[in-house]
Specification:
This protein is of the alpha+beta class and 61 residues long. Helices cover 11% and strands 16% of the residues. It has 1 helix and 4 strands, in the order αββββ. The protein has one helix spanning 10-16; strands at 27-29, 36-38, 48-49, 52-53. Strands 1-2 form a two-stranded antiparallel ribbon. A hairpin with a 6-residue loop joins strand 1 and strand 2 (36-38). The protein is rod-shaped, with a radius of gyration of 23 Å. The protein starts with 9 loop residues before the first helix and ends in an 8-residue tail after the last strand. The model has no long low-confidence stretch (mean pLDDT 91).
């Protein structure tokens, strides 16, 4: 297995890791009801995805 010949300093290690960061999810609007939803996911309000019914939602009256 590879073995480092020299110690990597904390500064050099941390410079390499600067690109690791959390990214906010891309949000869009549901084409059916207009609710804000995460892209490429089924709408939690109405159950539609890309204009088609994907999940049957129970109607509570």
């Amino acid at each position: 297995m590879a073995h480092p010949k020299r110690k990597i300093s904390k500064t050099r290690r941390d410079k390499r890791r600067t690109h690791y960061k959390a990214v906010a999810p891309t949000l869009g609007n549901c084409s059916n009801c207009g609710a804000t939803v995460k892209m490429h996911t089924v709408c939690g309000e109405c159950g539609y995805y890309r204009g088609k019914l994907a999940v049957e939602k129970e109607v509570t009256a």
